[in-house]
Request: fold
Amino acid sequence: MAKVDTSLVAHLPLFAGVTPEALDEILREARSARYPRNSAIFEQGADAQSFFLLLHGHVRAAKTTPTGEQIVVRYVAPGETFGLAMAIGAVQYPATAIAVDDSVVLIWPTSAWPRLVERFPSLAANTLQTVGTRLQESHTRILEMSTQQVEQRVAHALLRLAKQSGRKLDHGIEIDFPISRQDIAQMTGTTLHTVSRILSGWESQGLVESGRQRIILREPHRIVVLAERSADSGAA
Amino acid sequence: MAKVDTSLVAHLPLFAGVTPEALDEILREARSARYPRNSAIFEQGADAQSFFLLLHGHVRAAKTTPTGEQIVVRYVAPGETFGLAMAIGAVQYPATAIAVDDSVVLIWPTSAWPRLVERFPSLAANTLQTVGTRLQESHTRILEMSTQQVEQRVAHALLRLAKQSGRKLDHGIEIDFPISRQDIAQMTGTTLHTVSRILSGWESQGLVESGRQRIILREPHRIVVLAERSADSGAA
DNA sequence: TCTGGTGTTTGCGTTAGCGCAAAACGGAAC
DNA sequence: GTTCCGTTTTGCGCTAACGCAAACACCAGA
Reply:
């Protein structure tokens, strides 16, 4: 069993208020694993045998309808937990998790959760905080889907990705994992066609530069304007 | 300060695993209050000084955009908690809570939460469960908004309301609090006009019976069918 | 009984965005 | 260098749903 370096994870919100010794004990229950790009970490509907902490890479959590349509629930960035089915009392994973880049994760058996929480109550409090924040974000997303049009939603989605997982360039911000038009469509509740049209438009205005699974925001400030306008002026 | 009867709330999920004595202690920290129909319990953006447990009545939690549009986050049924801003570490309420019917609530000062959690860790675990469930429901709603058309979403919304707050009739189920077309529109991401058209259509098919802020599902089973069909057959 | 206000219904023109289809593009593997 | 496959782009017709506007129903209070 590989030893995990506590100093790498000690500062994470999940472990706030946990002593170094306790952290050590918690980490002893975990194992680490590597998932190559495009591999599944767990599938929606499978027994929730583990929960995860992402160390490196990026993970997409997606939910599928009975008829096969998908939406992206969120992108997991390093330092975040995912697969917390046990926290909500679910027996199965409510979504599928795919590594969109080569990724390294810590894995705890779900069965260890009750014991850990009992010994280290701040874990529960911290997790509550995390889940609460996600709930808020979720509500914000619903609000946007209800009140904004597609272009604004795409703008918001890209800005969020840039903030969460953006790599600063000389001029602009690049989203530092592979992401397709289809992915963005599934984040914003539209189709890949519409996303493609929007990005083409932005590209011709010099707002973004994009290619195959790759997006660079060249003019973040002007994209913010797009995200916030209510429903008016077109192009000059 | 009015004494709250422990037997009324002991069975609630929030208090699972809490001993009667502990429950007594927890309730001593709370006061109760009555809110008349259509009164505000708290406003979005206000300091989160309290959190709440609904004893009687019904409460609508709604979120407003900077430009004034609203969505209904959820309807709170008796036995449920709301206003849990502290759980997610928020300083202000992220939504507005309105009593849609004369309502009675228990109120704890937000400042009491850390102490309560420390003394009774199962409160945190139970709340985590609740928030987790809401997060799931939220994701389901996003999925529906992304993949289904308006009529199906309205069908789902009404079925959920019927399940959560339905009063069984000889023939059908009545939603037992006042709810307008506008409210349903704000739950499903559409306009009151579209909701009105849909309900008119259903009414002429005998699926529902409705009036001013009042809806009765006469044929729940046939509404389930509407909610589940993917995108095909019209009326005969 | 009348009157005002809030919620509801309905008609009608408009359109944002979908759905289908076809072509172009770009990487990776050989 | 060539081939192959997944992604992206773009055109075109269509329609679900919106937005506006006007009429209507219902309840409460004077």
In short: The radius of gyration of chain B is 19 Å. The longest strand of chain B covers residues 50-56.
